[in-house]
Amino acid sequence: MSEQPLLQVRDLVTRFHTPRGVVRAVDGVSFDVHAGETVALVGESGSGKSVTAMSVLDMVRRPGRIESGQVLFKGRDLLTLNEPEMREVRGAGIGMIFQDPMSTLNPLMRIRDQIIEGVRGLSRHQARDRAVEVMTQVGIPDPEARLRDYPHAYSGGMRQRVMIAMALANRPDLIIADEPTTALDVTVQAQILDLLATLGRELGTAVVLITHNLGVVARLCDRAMVMYGGRIVERAPVDELFTAPQHPYTAGLLAATPRLDAGRDVRLVPIEGRPPDLIAKSTGCAYAPRCPAAEDRCRTETPLLGPGERAAACLLPGPFTNADAGTDSAPDTRAAGEVSHARLPLAFDSEPLLEVRAISKHFAVRRGWGRNKGSVRAVDDVSLTIAPGETLGLVGESGCGKSTLGKVVLGIHPATSGEVRYDGTTLTKASLRTVRRGVQMVFQDPYSSLDPRMTVGALLREPLQVNDIARGEKADARVAELLELVGLGSEAGSRYPHEFSGGQRQRIAIARALAVDPRVVVCDEPVSALDVSLQAQIVNLLRELQERLGLAYLFIAHDLAVVRHLSHRIAVMYLGRIVEMGPADEITRSPLHPYTASLLSAVPEPDPRVEHTRERIILTGDLPSPLNPPAACRFHGRCPIGPTRFPERSICATTTPPLAEHSPGRTVACHFPGELTIAGTTSTSSRPQEIHA
């Protein structure tokens, strides 16, 4: 690390002038970044992370403005430059990777033209060569051909690689990455993190990573800065931040983060309350209203962030432990005599409540003039069961058919073949209305699934009236009961969805699903877009509702740590088929299918010691197209132990492995089950090892 920082931010203040008042989005932020290091900015949504990044690049637009401070890049204050001078810095000196590549890339321009457009100081021919070079650098196969494609022809992971290629095109000294892996599958996320790590190691590029995923911070970063209420409240080397956090907010974020090695008996501890209103003037510590350790002076004295590499803006600094955050002593709020399913041995010997029997769902793809191009085999011969009170987690990469299967279960998509049975009744058009009262769905994005023109009370009354369950005063009483059930007061019924936070909107969506007294709830990525604290609230709520009401869940997600925390059993899906199924603790402890082992290996754990020593399986390439899936084992082209690496294993490319019982309660579709686990998915060496498929 060089003595002179590459980037120095000093007392940066950015505010937004709105009709409601002045929003103090960034309020006196200072930090340094040295050449070749990776620094994280972490915190909940609304803490000021992204606005800080936009301020560094002087890209804040009205009604916001940078009111004071310095941004020194190589000793030059960027805030004193005019717009033409700043354009020379953006891209050439500091590159930016945005969160959503599809909304950033121009859908009407070829990728080649978008990269060349931003290259400085080269002829067009040289710029084309540079475009090929950076596309190769970020691991996109056949770059010369792919440069001619438009953004829609790329997968999500490949589009994010294009964004990184564009940021690298001018060989910048610093890259600011704003949530670059939030919407990606764990396997693609692992590829992107591996690529960002390579930039610092081989090219000497400094990276400022903005994220709320603490596992990503543990895997990739050297130092971390925790933001809250527009200010940095703690900064430290990553190892020290995770092992001994000095600010209670940092400890709260760690306690709310699910871990693969924690079972269902370990309760997540969300941070109570909401982030501060950045418009309202406050005295004292902004975190005091949510802090379990706050004293009277914390509400009147403002703590300052001291100098040095290790500092915390807290009047009562730690170090804090998980016990201080409450993970070892979470209160049991159940009434006397109420049973906790999570703390009893679960056998689920009763008859299945939901049965999926050999379900297939194919979508016809037509080229034009009615000509059939083929069929997308979204779900292909899938069978599973869910017992009363059980949670079955369904995991896999985007495009594997998880959400389609959930919609087939609800009758939203009619099955191409096979049958769905609920409580002994086969799902047909005639029985669909009755079955839908018993099976409900919670969607990924509550804001798009709730009518913004209706009050919360009207949203909850609607299913009661449509299904002739209650009207008038009875419906009002049921609405109040539902709101109390999901932790919202009855007064919430008079408000509109936009008046609630993301976590509260998801609670409303859950209340709407429970309005008709279902016995099965299909949860389709219900927490993937939430901060860790809101995620912990929703996960805990789902578990509490299951214990109180005996609900069964089909929980669809790609975050295996969350699935592990909530599920009794896990089913792993790849390209339309189930490849492994079994008890959650056994699946995560000793996976049998190499795809399951690859998914588990890709999950970043919020523990730097684990991340620095574990062996990783890096899957290369994207999920094959379901329009033309590989023959035999559909995973064989990406398999770390398959015929790509071991040609003698041609059986994987010629014979389809059946989904067969491997041991009591465990099934797997693999010719060589358990071999990758036997080879070792953990390592005791001082540096992480990688297996590239």
Structural overview:
This protein has 25 helices and 25 strands. It is α/β, with parallel strands linked by helices and 693 residues long. It has three domains: 1-93 and 170-330, P-loop containing nucleotide triphosphate hydrolases (Rossmann fold, 3-Layer(aba) Sandwich); 354-574, Rossmann fold; 590-692, no CATH class. The strands form five sheets. Strands 17-18-19-14-20-21-24-23 form an eight-stranded mixed sheet, with helices on both faces. Strands 6-7-8-3-9-10-11 form a seven-stranded mixed sheet, sandwiched between helices. Strand 1 and strand 2 (21-33) form a beta hairpin. The longest helix has 18 residues, at 186-203.
Category by helix and strand content: alpha/beta
User: How many helix segments?
Assistant: 25
Strand order in space, largest sheet: 17-18-19-14-20-21-24-23
**Low-pLDDT sequence parts:** 326-346, 678-689
Helix content: 25-40%
* Gap between N and C termini: 34 Å
> CATH homologous superfamily of the largest domain - what is it?
P-loop containing nucleotide triphosphate hydrolases
Cα-atom Rg, whole angstroms?
26 Å
For the sheet with most strands, the description reads:
8 strands, mixed
By CATH reckoning, the class of the largest domain would read Alpha Beta
Approximately how much beta-strand content do the residues carry? 15-25%
The domain tally reads 3
Q: Supply the CATH architecture of the largest domain.
A: 3-Layer(aba) Sandwich
Organism: Embleya scabrispora
Protein name: ABC transporter domain-containing protein
GO molecular function: ATP binding; ATP hydrolysis activity
Family: Belongs to the ABC transporter superfamily.
